[in-house]
From TrEMBL:
<dbReference type="InterPro" id="IPR033524">
    <property type="entry name" value="Glu/Leu/Phe/Val_DH_AS"/>
</dbReference>
<dbReference type="InterPro" id="IPR006095">
    <property type="entry name" value="Glu/Leu/Phe/Val/Trp_DH"/>
</dbReference>
<dbReference type="InterPro" id="IPR033922">
    <property type="entry name" value="NAD_bind_Glu_DH"/>
</dbReference>
<comment type="similarity">
    <text>Belongs to the Glu/Leu/Phe/Val dehydrogenases family.</text>
</comment>
<feature type="binding site">
    <location>
        <position position="145"/>
    </location>
    <ligand>
        <name>NAD(+)</name>
    </ligand>
</feature>
<dbReference type="Pfam" id="PF00208">
    <property type="entry name" value="ELFV_dehydrog"/>
</dbReference>
<dbReference type="InterPro" id="IPR014362">
    <property type="entry name" value="Glu_DH"/>
</dbReference>
<dbReference type="GO" id="GO:0000166">
    <property type="term" value="F:nucleotide binding"/>
</dbReference>
<dbReference type="Pfam" id="PF02812">
    <property type="entry name" value="ELFV_dehydrog_N"/>
</dbReference>
<dbReference type="GO" id="GO:0004352">
    <property type="term" value="F:glutamate dehydrogenase (NAD+) activity"/>
</dbReference>
<keyword id="KW-0560">Oxidoreductase</keyword>
<keyword id="KW-0547">Nucleotide-binding</keyword>
<keyword id="KW-0520">NAD</keyword>
<dbReference type="InterPro" id="IPR006097">
    <property type="entry name" value="Glu/Leu/Phe/Val/Trp_DH_dimer"/>
</dbReference>
<feature type="active site" description="Proton donor">
    <location>
        <position position="75"/>
    </location>
</feature>
<dbReference type="InterPro" id="IPR036291">
    <property type="entry name" value="NAD(P)-bd_dom_sf"/>
</dbReference>
<protein>
    <recommendedName>
        <fullName>Glutamate dehydrogenase</fullName>
    </recommendedName>
</protein>
Length: 364
């Protein structure tokens, strides 16, 4: 088939599941499977919507494609409280409902973790991001995505006129991704000057002792209890004077409402779709370089795909480093050469591989 006739790459399936007896809803989107069965996380949140899951599934298609993985993109959302005491029950019910949807391989996402993936695996024998005891590479514990962000920073910093050693970094969201990014970036000599969670922001222009900050978060549940810093509101994180800003919490946190206040020179998108399209274009015009989510935060899915292919932890870390560094360089070169904004450069590269694979499919 001539790929120029392909108008849309997905979504191929949008499924809404209702469980009246257990009293919860779920959404599954399989965006595209031209490169292989789709992999994508299961988000658990009270307000996850069909639209959000569709956008996240597309991000997975692009991420898996550009990362050279034999997988398409998908995503699921369970509309429930992630702290619900019946979590195991609704994960097991959800698993049975997707048992025959072989083109979707669930992974962890916000509100789900290795234990949840183990429940799914126990029910249907198909999930990634499993605990070590049952053959998994625990990507959150190992900090796969945070490690990938630090590798991305190594390549991207010079393009933004920054030296990574000594760069001041602000991180929104001190969960699995944010904490690991802080740890790996400080090992590379960066200085973490602000971090936030749902309780607020902690700032110290001289930088934190990361080990201390990590243990305060672990012990008290929030970064704001760290005594060696100033406490501010969640939103003030974006106003922090810094070189590198890492949104690592949730979707659409930088929008037209707050984009003008952003002071960073470089943004590495740790979360999925953390910046609206409009704000991303505005950042580009302001001269702030922003590395798109599916390039910068691909560490987790690369490790998940390595686990699925039965590779070792060492091979997974090597794959993350090689692929993220190569892709960051590729898209930033294309951005500067063609004078286009980074997401456009990244989408063109990612879509090319998907379209080439789709061209081999039977036309019905
Ligand atoms: P997590 O649940 O472990 O952590 C999220 C953190 O964000 C928590 O500390 C929470 O308190 C904080 N948060 C939520 N809303 C906030 C707000 N408004 N202001 C400040 N902090 C806020 O989740 P995670 O696994 O770290 O994932 C974070 C993001 O990264 C999500 O968008 C996820 O889809 C994306 N992501 C995760 C991975 C991964 O490997 N875990 C991979 C790729 C992308």
């Amino acid at each position: 088939m001539d790929k120029s006739v392909i108008k849309e790459i997905g979504p191929s399936k949008v499924i809404q599941l209702f469980f009246p007896v257990s009293n919860f809803h779920a959404i599954v989107v399989v965006d595209n499977t031209a490169l292989g069965p789709s992999i994508g996380g299961v988000r658990v949140s009270r307000d996850v919507s069909v639209e959000e899951v569709k956008r996240l599934a597309r991000t997975m298609t692009l991420k898996n494609s550009v990362s050279g993985l034999p997988h398409g993109g998908g995503k699921a959302g369970i509309i429930a409280d992630p702290r619900d005491t019946k979590k195991e029950h609704y994960f097991r019910v959800f698993s049975q409902a997707i048992k025959d949807l072989y083109e979707y391989i669930p992974g962890p996402d916000m509100g789900s973790n290795e234990e949840c993936m183990a429940w799914i695996y126990d029910e249907i024998g198909r999930s990634v991001g499993l605990p070590e005891e049952i053959g998994g590479l625990p990507l959150d514990k190992l900090g796969a995505t945070g490690f990938g962000l630090s590798e991305c920073a190594e390549i991207a910093c010079p393009y933004a006129g920054i030296e990574l050693k000594g760069a001041r970094v602000a991180i929104q969201g001190f969960g699995s991704v944010g904490r690991a990014a802080a740890r790996f970036l400080s090992e590379k000599g960066a200085i973490i000057v602000a971090a936030s969670d749902t309780k607020g922001t902690i700032c110290n222009p001289d930088g934190f002792d990361i080990k201390e900050l990590l243990s305060i978060k672990e012990e008290t549940g929030s970064v704001i209890h760290y005594k060696k810093g100033m406490v501010k509101t969640c939103e003030e994180l974006f106003l922090t004077p810094c070189d590198v800003l890492i949104p690592a919490a949730t979707a659409d946190v930088i929008s037209k409402e707050n984009v003008e206040g952003v002071k960073a020179k470089l943004i590495l998108q740790g979360a999925n779709i953390p910046i609206t399209r409009e704000a991303e274009e505005r950042l580009y015009k302001k001269g702030i370089l922003s590395v798109p989510d599916f390039i910068a935060n691909a560490g987790g899915v690369i490790m998940a795909a390595m686990e699925y292919a039965k590779k070792s932890e060492k091979e997974a870390f090597e794959a993350i480093s090689n692929r993220i560094k190569k892709n960051t360089k590729l898209i930033l070169e294309k951005t500067f050469k063609e004078n286009i904004f980074p997401r456009q450069a990244a989408e063109e590269l990612a879509k090319e591989r998907v379209l080439n694979a789709m061209a081999y499919k039977k036309v019905l």
